[in-house]
Design brief:
592 residues; mainly beta; globular
């Protein structure tokens, strides 16, 4: 969707901004005593779902969370009857959300689950729950029967198919607060959740008082409970407090990010914290934490750091032995599968961790064990995928940033789009440094409406939704429609969302893309609807008898299906006839 005219930055270049103050003050004193506007380029990303009359979740992609999280390889492992897949944007209508207003969604590039936070601070979750990452109080997984290779149905399914309220996030938090009511609380004194981050098998929730709580897989320290063995459980379904933020002597936490097995947080004073698995140096402490476990032989492993630690040194450039300094004005942070990025208020971008495919942007494929500054641009946001990275920002020349244009086409913009790492996986194309995406030159792009999945990018710009993939995708997450292409390396518009008037947020993971749109928008009204079955949303906190009945029913149903399959039932024949039809969808014009 290239624009005929591109941004003419030369007409909007302002004087070089001075270094932002560590406190990120909105104004500064000039020599004559007058106050000048702060020229900080980057600020914390705000998601304004309140501007929508009736926020709804619109989804493209698969609800087969277990296979979708594996990427294209997961497509090969799907059974003959797969969960619903939406190749075109579809409104998700969940009974649990009828009386709730969505304020923020949380998914991650390597995540197999999703979290939604409402405007009154409640938490809803769905997707994989194999390590208790949904925080529902129970771990979803088959229960061993004692016989080798035989399992019985679990009371809580391994996957929760639809948005389900997870009250334990707030009730556990309320218990620790001992009934204290403040601005951090909602209605009945319960604390209010304000933001979230979703890793591969763990979840982080930030509350209004700056405290962070976590649930899920913690064997590698990603939960941040501590370094004792009980503090690093394989599965934790009851949320517990992370040892950072909101405690004595620690500033509140304002932003969090979660990768495959590590976590990051940004404090209110601009400090950066990390914890989890040290491989690739993704904790940013100057080492990858590798050590030998045996004196008599070589058996290498890495360090599980279960206690959050402040990142105290940032490299000023990518050269070996580059000077370092302490950064105290971090405003945004992102985590991919095995690499991470952050942005300071003056627009400097830093990346570290696994450098394969050049995804760190330092013109090499070497890993970086400290946050290292990117050259060539000032950024407003940076997002990490699996093997790619994207960002919004403005060009920099000889250390002088082109200041943010006041508007582009009458709409505020957070900069032009940069991409690096794997760009066209099937063609072997990529970049080891940030390069502008020329296909989107001239578009007004917003940080809150840009997201990166494992290997695709999705956004809403002005009145259009746009998506494309860095590597081939197979679950309909681009949303091109049933008869549209399954994948594309070039940005393309989503026909069904052309003309969309308002978007609060875009969020993506390996196999799906989510949009928070306005239900009253005429474009949204025309979209297909999917009603999440009420039975899949039932709270796992049911009584034992009901759970046993559910397990028995599941077993009985499984036996009946197995018998029907052997007989070649009409239902199986009908279902089998449907599948080839879905595969017959061909790309639009020009495809082979």
């Amino acid at each position: 969707p290239r624009r005929e005219q591109s941004m003419d930055l030369s007409q909007d270049i302002l004087a070089l901004a001075e270094e932002a103050e560590p406190t990120g003050a909105a104004k500064k004193e000039s020599d004559d005593g007058e106050k000048e506007e702060d020229t900080a380029i980057a600020r914390p990303i705000t998601i304004d779902a309140g501007a929508l009359k009736q926020p709804v979740i619109v989804m493209c992609g698969s609800t087969d969370w277990a296979n979708a999280v594996k990427g294209s390889a997961g497509r090969m492992t799907q059974g003959s009857v797969a969960p619903p897949q939406f190749n075109a944007p579809t409104v998700i209508q969940a009974p649990a959300l009828k009386s709730a207003r969505i304020a923020r969604l949380g998914v991650g590039p390597c995540a197999g689950h999703c979290v939604a936070i409402t405007d009154d601070g409640r938490v809803f979750a769905w997707g994989l729950n194999t390590h208790g990452q949904l925080g529902l109080g129970e771990v979803g997984a088959p229960v061993p029967t004692g016989k080798k290779g035989v399992t019985s149905p679990s009371v809580t399914p391994a996957t929760v198919a639809g948005p389900t309220e997870a009250p334990r996030w707030t009730t556990q938090r309320a218990s620790s607060a001992k009934g204290g009511g403040s601005s951090a609380s909602r209605g009945g004194g319960a604390p209010r959740a304000v933001s979230c981050a979703v890793g591969k098998n763990h979840t982080l929730i930030t509350f209004a008082d700056g405290a962070v709580w976590a649930a899920g897989h913690g064997a590698r320290g990603a939960l941040g409970y501590g370094t004792r063995k009980p503090d690093m459980p394989d599965a934790c379904s009851v949320p517990r407090r992370v040892a950072v933020g909101g405690t004595t002597g620690q500033p509140p936490i304002r932003a969090v990010a979660a990768g495959a097995d590590f976590s990051l947080a940004v404090g209110a004073r601009g400090e950066l914290y990390s914890w989890g698995w040290s491989e690739h140096g993704k904790l940013g402490h100057g080492t990858d934490g590798q050590y030998n476990t045996k004196d008599s032989s070589i058996k290498l492993t890495y360090t599980a750091s279960g206690t959050p630690r402040r990142v105290d040194a940032f490299a000023e450039d990518a050269a070996d032995g580059a000077s370092t300094r302490l950064i105290t004005n971090v405003v945004a942070v992102s985590a991919g599968k095995h690499h991470a990025a952050c942005v300071s208020s003056d627009g400097h971008g830093y990346t570290w961790g696994d450098g394969a495919y050049g995804k760190l942007g330092h013109r090499t494929q070497d890993q970086r064990t400290r946050p290292t500054r990117l050259a060539g641009a000032r950024f407003t946001t940076i997002l990490c995928g699996d093997n790619s990275t994207c960002a919004l920002g403005f060009p920099e020349y000889r250390g002088r940033p082109f200041a943010k244009p006041p508007s582009v086409g009458g709409t505020d913009s957070d900069g032009c789009l940069y991409v690096w790492g794997v760009l066209k996986g099937t063609h072997g194309e990529g970049a080891t440094h940030p390069v502008p995406e020329q296909e989107l030159a001239g578009w007004a792009l917003k940080a809150s409406c840009l997201s990166m999945g494992a290997s695709h990018v999705a956004m809403v710009a002005e009145t259009a939704a746009i998506a494309w993939a860095q590597s081939a995708v197979a679950f309909g997450q681009l949303g091109y429609g049933t008869h549209g292409p399954k994948s594309s390396h070039r940005p393309q518009k989503l026909v069904d969302l052309d003309g969309v008037a308002g978007c609060a947020q875009v969020a993506a993971h390996a196999g799906a893309t989510f949009y928070v749109l306005d239900a009253d928008d005429p474009v949204v009204k025309e979209l297909a609807k999917y009603d999440v079955p009420a039975e899949v949303e039932a709270s796992p906190e049911s009584n034992t008898a009901a759970a046993a009945a559910e397990a028995a029913a599941a077993t009985s149903s499984s036996k009946k299906k197995s018998a029907a399959k052997k007989r070649g039932s009409p239902e199986d024949t009908k279902e089998a006839s449907k599948k080839p039809a879905a595969k017959r969808g061909r790309p639009a014009k020009g495809s082979k």
